[in-house]
Every structure is written in structure tokens, then in C-alpha cells.
Write a structure and sequence with these properties.
formyl-coa transferase, domain 3; CoA-Trfase_III_dom3_sf; membrane; transferase; three-stranded antiparallel β-sheet; CoA transferase; seven-stranded mixed β-sheet; transmembrane; alpha/beta; elongated; 2 domains; Rossmann fold
Length: about 400
């Protein structure tokens, strides 16, 4: 099928995670994404772990793109970029303050070349704010957002979510701002997306609980502050599974499933507010029941009785799950690695999963073809390579 963003050209000056994740989404949807890299490449190419010398981190967020390795400090390098800007629709960057101006790729300069350009800048914090100079590392944003002291238990130290979720959320927001720009009547269209603002915004109801009630949500670990039972339980083999009796109807079904109709009739547990008030008593009873048999037994009878439930997987178990293997994981060919697994986008368009089968590019892999598309002769390209204005594999 034709993909919805075919014919769209994106220049990606970004690095690390949020920007490259955003532009990978666009490449999956059919956009021609040109990854603009320095002659030494995106720093994530050097981040462990590696397979055959190639960073897995880099492989996870750069499929579908073409790589142009170029010296933007050189006038001839900038001239190549300006030719690309004339033929492009969207620019992404996440440079530190002042860098884009030094490199000649700031909004004013690029808009003077293409007034219809959509320019998206990803930053840690709003410029001229009290945090403007603070490096927006993932753990910094997680700490500032309140997330690290909202998860885990009350007597535990702060808990870091083990992947940069706010970079991912920011990348998604950046895609929305970019595509909105294509339909905007406002020209020029310049958008900034901030990691910290995205972090607080994406926590949604947790901040609003505090803002509207002046109460901090309790740290409940894997439980829910206002629904019981809605948490993880341990089985006879020390494996965990979820029981999500999200309303009174599901609680009644749970009691039927485990053969404890008396718990459904007990006045302490009849309604959800009753169960919240008597959480510790009910949870202890359920823990003593569930620890008697293995997880598979409980999941079988819970699902037969239509009680929302699921195993708590280790990561290796996730990728043995038939749904994940059949719907989310796909493979593409890499020139040095052979067949490599990737994760498809989490939705479908006209019954088709969206993903690009173009491998994550080697540094400068597409430099020559891009220069030829811009009208450079082979002798001009050779001269640019020899003088280290551009680099190819």
C-alpha cells in the first residue's frame, strides 16, 4: 500500500532519543527522512550494548532513514543543507542553546530559504526560563516531574523508570506539532516542544489530584489508591500476576472464581469504598489464597470467569508471547547484521501495520545518492569527500 506520508521530506538534525524517535515514526509512515550527522556521527552510535560493533540503542530508533554525514561548520557543507531545505517540508533539531545559530541552521536562516518549512525544536526546558541551562537528562526530568516519588512504596527511595519514557512522549508530541504545521495557515511555522513540560503534562491525572485536592497521591507500588483489588499477587512459584477487579461486578466474579462467595457477601468488602477502607484485610486474605497454586491455574479460572487478569512478565516472557511475536515484532535486513528484529508501530492504517523495512543507516551511507539528487556531479562529490566536507561509508 502507499503510505500516508510518501512525498514528504524531513531533515533530521536531532540526536539521542526524542528527536530520532519522532522522525522514525514519520519514516514508518512513508516520509523520506534524511538524518543529518556530523562526520563523527550521532553519539548514540557509540552507546552500548553492541552487536557486531553496532549500537542496539541506535538500531532501535533510526530505521527508515537516510544518513548524510556532513561538516556544518564548513560553508560548503551549509550550502548542501540549504539546497536540501529548498526541497524539504519539516526540520527537526534539538541543539543546545546557540549551536544552531553557529551552524547556520537556525529558524530565521532556514525560513529565509523556504518560508513554508515546518521547523520543530525539541528542548529540555523553555528558553529564558530558570531551567534553560540545566541539561535535560532522563533522570533529571524524571526527578523534577515527581514521577520518581509517585511510584514504588512509601518507605522506598526514589524509583527510576528504566527507560527514557519522557523522551518517547516528547517525540510523540513533536510528531503532532510537526504534522499540525503542514496544515497550518500560519507561516512561518516554528514549534518548540519541551521534555519537562511534556513530563508533567503526560502524568495527566496524578498532578491534577494534587492541584485540585491539595493532596499528594500515596505511593502504592503495584496497587491502586482507590480501587481494591487492583494489583499484583504472587503465586506458589513466586511468579506475579495481575488481578484488576475494577468495579463491584468484577469483584463478584472474582469471588466466584476463587470459590469464596463469602467474601462477596462480607459487609467489609461489599462495595469498592468498603474494600478500600479494609484494603489490608482483604489483600491479606487474597494473598494467602493465591500463594497456594501456580499462576497459570489462577489465570485460567480468572479468565473463564471474565475477571481482568494477566501475568506480570519478565522482558524475555514478553517476547515469547504469541500476540507480541505475531503483531508487534518484525524483521528487516541489515547489510552487516543480516536479519534484525524491530518493533512495529502500535496501530494499523487500512489493516496494515506501519513500519519501514529500510535498515538503520551506516554513517554517511546515503551521502553520495543525496548529493546526486541535489545535482552534484561525481567529480564535485569526490572533491567534497576528499576535503572532509562530507563523509561516505
Amino acid at each position: 500500500m502507499n503510505k500516508p506520508l510518501e512525498g514528504l521530506r524531513v531533515l533530521d538534525f536531532s540526536h539521542t532519543l526524542a528527536g530520532p524517535f519522532a522522525t522514525m515514526i514519520l519514516s514508518d509512515l512513508g516520509a523520506d527522512v534524511i538524518k543529518i550527522e556530523s562526520l563523527t556521527g550521532d553519539e548514540t552510535r557509540e552507546w552500548a550494548p553492541f552487536i557486531n560493533g553496532i549500537s542496539v540503542y541506535y538500531l532501535s530508533i533510526n530505521r527508515g532513514k537516510r544518513s548524510l554525514a556532513i561538516d556544518l561548520k564548513a560553508e560548503e557543507g551549509r550550502e548542501i543543507i540549504y539546497r536540501l531545505v529548498e526541497k524539504s517540508h519539516i526540520v527537526f533539531e534539538n541543539y543546545r542553546p546557540g549551536v544552531r545559530e553557529k551552524l547556520g541552521v537556525d529558524p530565521d536562516k532556514l525560513f529565509s530559504i523556504n518560508k513554508n518549512l515546518v521547523y520543530v525544536s525539541i528542548k529540555g526546558f523553555k528558553p529564558n526560563s530558570i531551567y534553560e541551562e540545566l541539561p535535560a537528562y532522563d533522570i533529571v526530568i524524571q526527578g523534577l516531574s515527581g514521577l520518581m516519588l509517585s511510584t514504588g512504596f512509601e518507605d522506598q527511595p526514589p524509583i527510576r523508570i528504566p527507560f527514557a519514557l519522557f523522551d518517547v512522549f516528547t517525540g510523540m508530541m513533536a510528531v503532532i506539532y510537526a504534522l499540525t504545521g503542514l496544515y497550518s495557515s500560519v507561516k512561518p511555522y516554528y514549534a518548540e516542544v519541551y521534555l519537562f513540560d511534556t513530563a508533567v503534562f503526560s502524568m495527566c491525572y496524578l498532578p491534577l489530584i494534587y492541584l485540585l485536592t491539595n493532596r499528594k497521591p500515596m505511593r502504592m507500588g503495584h496497587a491502586h489508591p482507590s480501587i481494591v483489588p487492583y494489583q499484583a499477587f504472587k503465586d506458589s512459584d513466586n511468579k506475579w500476576f495481575i488481578v484488576a477487579a475494577a468495579n463491584d461486578r468484577f469483584y463478584q466474579k472474582l469471588c466466584e472464581a476463587i470459590g469464596r462467595r463469602d467474601l462477596a457477601e462480607d459487609s467489609r468488602f461489599k462495595t469498592n469504598p468498603d474494600r478500600v477502607r479494609n484494603r489490608d484485610i482483604l489483600v491479606k486474605i487474597l494473598e494467602e489464597i493465591f500463594v497456594e497454586k501456580p499462576r497459570e491455574y489462577w489465570l485460567n479460572i480468572l479468565r473463564k470467569n471474565q475477571v481482568p487478569s494477566a501475568p506480570v512478565y519478565e522482558l524475555d516472557e514478553v517476547f515469547r508471547d504469541p500476540y507480541v511475536l505475531g503483531e508487534i515484532v518484525f524483521e528487516l535486513k541489515h547489510p552487516r547484521l543480516g536479519s534484525i528484529k524491530q518493533l512495529a508501530q502500535p496501530g494499523m492504517i487500512n489493516n496494515n501495520r506501519m513500519y519501514s523495512t529500510r535498515h538503520p543507516p551506516e554513517l554517511g551511507e546515503n551521502t553520495v545518492e543525496i548529493l546526486r539528487e541535489l545535482g552534484y556531479s561525481d567529480s564535485e562529490i569526490e572533491s567534497l569527500i576528499n576535503r572532509n566536507i562530507v563523509k561516505t561509508v
